[in-house]
Amino acid sequence: MLFTEYPLLERPRAAAAAGFEAVEILFPYDENAAALGTALARAKLPLALINCPPPNYADPDGPRGFAAVPGEAARFQQAFRRTLRYAGALGAEFVHIMAGVAEGAAAKTCFIDNLRWAAAQAPKQKLTIEPINAGDMPGYFLDDFDLALEVLDAVDAPNLFLQFDAYHAEKITGDVADTWARVKHRVAHVQVGGVPDRHEPAGGDCDYPAFFARLDAEGYRGWVSGEYRPATRTEDGLDWIR
């Protein structure tokens, strides 16, 4: 989402030059894994996270994951295996498993079953799930933090964690600080973006200076990823880091 002024293979170099210490590539599947690995190595940056998507995520009308969609277990397993090949080739620390559009008890059971399978299939790979607000992704199954905790407890896998996007937390609950306090014990990866427009995490409805200070004070040691759409050129909006 950042450095879109450059082709994907040039973005790690731009991120390194801007002072970032790692990168996310949410959907790397249209690029050759070896070429991406070379770009990361030249930039001397590790890959923090990739998403586990359906093969046709580039389709604007395509599904946004299907781990919680009943009847799609075989499709999910195929997509997950493909994601694991990329994660292994690129050294991705985390794989975010997307739930997809679904609702109800059958979807919850499906999600839990698929997550159990994935966690057992790749016990050394760190996996995450992330609540996403209904405004950005209508109908997305995992749209609530309490539901996310229930799913994590039900799966009970040591390599499955919560991915905390403060932008989505503000949109879902209206209170990032309170939500963080309730779920931080399950969080392994943090993302940030401005509210309400998902530009730079500065100003707006979320007090990011206070949130960052709290992460430091509480000893959070995971990544904090800028997952937002820059208002102008990426390099022109990085004061929030400093």
Comma- or semicolon-separated keywords:
single chain, 242 residues, alpha/beta, seven-stranded parallel β-sheet, 8 helices, 13% strand
Write the layout of secondary structure elements.
Layout (H helix, E strand, L loop, with lengths): L10 H7 L5 E2 L8 H11 L3 E6 L20 H18 L3 E4 L7 H17 L4 E4 L15 H11 L4 E6 H8 L2 H8 L3 E6 L15 H10 L6 E3 L16
Parallel strand pairs: 1-2, 2-3, 3-4, 4-5, 5-6, 6-7
Helix pairs in contact: 1-2, 4-5
Descriptive overview:
It is a single chain. The protein contains eight helices and seven strands. It has a seven-stranded parallel beta sheet. It starts with 10 loop residues before the first helix and ends in a 16-residue tail after the last strand. It is globular. Strand 4 (126-129), helix 5 and strand 5 (160-165) form a beta-alpha-beta unit. The protein is α/β, with parallel strands linked by helices and 242 residues long. It has helices at residues 11-17, 33-43, 73-90, 105-121, 145-155, 166-173, 176-183, 208-217, and strands spanning 23-24, 47-52, 94-97, 126-129, 160-165, 187-192, 224-226. 37% of the residues lie in helices and 13% in strands.
